[in-house]
DNA sequence: AAAAAAC
């Protein structure tokens, strides 16, 4: 289905064409007519599916109806980078449409606060905000949201995870009840249903949740001790021509050590987490998107929503605790029918998480163990769930994927949370 | 046992 088949104004179609969009994605096909019809929307959809365009296009189509100098659209998002990315898309689409917008978020130590205040008082058409900073402005009393006609909650499940529910309700208190509200969420847990019931009026629902990773992703799993991960990664990268890789780690304390270890091995890497300065975060992400360096080490600050063109690899340095986040993380690659590789390292503790991912994807994932052959010593063996669960359903030696050989004999002894007796620091295993 | 987000 093509965009000119929707009841959109010519100006909007020109703007869409200028962005080189031609065919509408499934979420756009479903959402655009419903949003144009004026109803509230409860949408289960992931990023990378054209979700942003699905709500921006019909909203931008109606912007000319609203008086200039008064904000008509408020978009709330969980992370600063997502706010910025959506703002860039509005700027792209809105260029010919005379729509003004601004991303409002915290962490900046420059003229940004004043710019934000100005845009809010002068009534930019579209405000894209993270909740905390917007509330800071709202409390100062100069924000006029009486003319808001559209409210979008993007990545709503993530915002709830982050404890933003109170902030969201607070912000909505400043917005007229007579409005069109669009709620987008990657998952539909009871909490989201509850929120939807509170803030949506007779919503249309669409469901495009892809709990399955895209076909084009080659998913690889490697059993590995923590101290084997860097040399294993170096080995896996040795024949790559020009990789563009995001390496996820669940802890921000791991970001810099990983960056340093990669640099030591002559790979250009940079790191992003909430500990980085905001301007640094923005510069690094921009440079990475422009392929200025091959490896970006990141926390889950980037696992949702962020679009990076032609990402060849996603590496999970550890297994995310929420199985859905696995799908989100690897969904950064193989976008738009491209191919991509997702590499996940599994240590002893992370094995139960892999099993949860297998349950979510409803299939066994093939685990490899190559540390022995590349001279790094034994990896942890893949083990069926320990007797902690209710029943010992699986008879020993049956059913579970099982790797025969030396791996089963000498397991590294990990009694506590952290290895206390490992190889000494800075001893490159060679 | 984590991450994100306001000052």
UniProtKB/TrEMBL annotation:
CDD domains: DEADc, SF2_C_DEAD. Residues 232-377 form the Helicase C-terminal domain. Belongs to the DEAD box helicase family. One of its GO terms (molecular function) is nucleic acid binding. Residues 1-29 form the DEAD-box RNA helicase Q domain. One of its GO terms (cellular component) is cytosol. This is Superfamily II DNA and RNA helicase. Transmembrane segments: none annotated. A motif (Q motif) lies at residues 1-29. Keywords: ATP-binding, Helicase, Hydrolase, Nucleotide-binding. SMART domains: DEXDc, HELICc. Residues 369-430 are annotated as: Disordered. Residues 412-422 have a biased composition (Basic residues). Gene3D superfamilies: P-loop containing nucleotide triphosphate hydrolases (3.40.50.300). Residues 32-206 form the Helicase ATP-binding domain. The lineage of its organism: Bacteria, Pseudomonadati, Bacteroidota, Cytophagia, Cytophagales.
């Amino acid at each position: 289905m093509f965009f000119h088949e929707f009841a959109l104004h010519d100006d909007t179609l020109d703007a869409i064409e200028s962005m080189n969009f031609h065919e509408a994605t499934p979420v756009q096909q479903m959402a655009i007519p419903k949003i144009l019809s004026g109803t509230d929307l409860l949408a289960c959809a992931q990023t990378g599916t054209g979700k942003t365009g699905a709500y921006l296009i019909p909203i931008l189509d109606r912007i000319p109806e609203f008086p200039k100098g008064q904000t008509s659209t408020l978009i709330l998002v969980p992370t600063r980078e997502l706010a910025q990315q959506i703002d860039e898309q509005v700027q792209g689409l809105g260029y010919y449409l005379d729509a003004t917008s601004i991303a409002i978020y915290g962490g900046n130590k420059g003229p940004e606060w004043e710019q934000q205040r100005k845009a809010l008082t002068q009534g930019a058409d579209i405000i894209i905000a993270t909740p905390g900073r917007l509330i800071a402005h709202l409390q100062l009393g100069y924000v006029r949201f009486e003319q808001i006609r559209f409210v979008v909650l993007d990545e709503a499940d993530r915002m709830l995870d982050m404890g933003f529910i109170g902030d969201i309700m607070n912000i909505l208190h400043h917005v007229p009840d007579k409005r069109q509200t669009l709620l987008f969420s990657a998952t539909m847990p009871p909490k989201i249903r509850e929120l939807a019931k509170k803030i949506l009026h007779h919503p249309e629902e669409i469901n495009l949740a892809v709990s399955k990773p895209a076909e084009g992703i080659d998913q690889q799993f490697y059993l590995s001790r923590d101290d084997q991960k860097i040399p294993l990664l170096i080995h896996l990268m040795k024949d790559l021509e020009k990789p563009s890789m995001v390496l996820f780690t669940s802890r921000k304390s791991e970001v810099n050590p990983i960056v340093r270890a990669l640099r030591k091995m002559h790979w250009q890497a940079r790191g992003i987490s909430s500990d980085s300065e905001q301007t640094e975060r923005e510069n690094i992400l921009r440079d990475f998107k422009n392929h200025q360096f091959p490896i970006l080490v990141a926390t889950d600050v980037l696992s949702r929503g962020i679009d990076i063109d032609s990402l060849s690899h996603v590496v999970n340095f550890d297994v995310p605790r929420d199985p859905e986040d696995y799908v989100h993380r690897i969904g950064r690659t193989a976008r738009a029918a491209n191919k991509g590789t997702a590499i996940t390292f599994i240590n002893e503790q992370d094995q139960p998480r892999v099993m949860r991912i297998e349950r979510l994807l409803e299939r066994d994932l093939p685990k490899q163990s190559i540390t022995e052959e590349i001279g790094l010593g034994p990896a942890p063996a893949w083990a069926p769930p320990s007797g902690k669960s209710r029943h010992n359903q699986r008879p020993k030696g049956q059913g579970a994927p099982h790797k025969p050989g030396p791996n089963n004999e000498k397991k590294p002894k990990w009694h506590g949370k952290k290895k206390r007796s490992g190889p000494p620091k800075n001893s490159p295993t060679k």
